[in-house]
Amino acid sequence: MTVAQPSPRPTTRDEGWRYADGAALARLDPAELAAWKDIALAPGEVRRHHMTVGGSAPELHRIRLDVAAGARAELFVLVAGQDYTRLEIAVQLGAGAHFEFGGVTIGGGPVTGGPVREIVTRVVHTGAAASSHQVVRGVHWGQATGNFLGRVDVTRTGQQTDAAQDYKGLLLEAGASCNARPELEIFADDVKCAHGAAIGQLDQAAAFYMA
After folding, report:
1. Which of 8, 35, 63, 150 lies deepest, with the highest CB count within 10 Å?
2. DSSP state string for 20-33
3. SS (H, E, C) 73-89
4. How far apart (Å, rounded) are the C-alpha atoms in residues 152 and 124?
5. Which helix (DSSP H) or strand (DSSP E) does residue 134 occupy?
6. Is the pTM of this model over 0.85?
């Protein structure tokens, strides 16, 4: 009988984990690292879900969405853990399907070793005329870090794809940080794809007038 070997524990040397908290990864249970929640939407189905993740210990949430032809999946997530918190979403879109995603990483942290909160997405357009729209925001202070790693793949069969990613990170205090890595990989020639990212500090004059 062949015994399945456990998947190697990810480290910050792995491209998909480069901004993660390495010490927190070492504290995660190997079973959590291998676990995925699989969700399949039937053709024409519409499903919407809101969730808040994060607590006082490291958390890893991994979701795989299979969105069939003409279906629509909407997911809105708040990542606000006081320890390392990662939400990872893998989506496959059929013909005419749509994926709508809104995500926020938010919070502060102690003077040293602030928490890392991150959202990682990969959306694969395999069907024609499918669309995806991702809007992610980060608001952090203290020594906290917010990350967004978003990738959109358009296969050769994904003609007439309409895909967009938008990330903005706001740093409320010196010492906080945000990292963004939006990616596009396109093998079709009739598509509309865009991504953008901006990270900046809170304008002090604006903060004064808000106060």
Report:
1. 150
2. S-HHHHHHS-HHHH
3. EEEEEEECCCCCEEEEE
4. 6
5. strand 131-140
6. yes
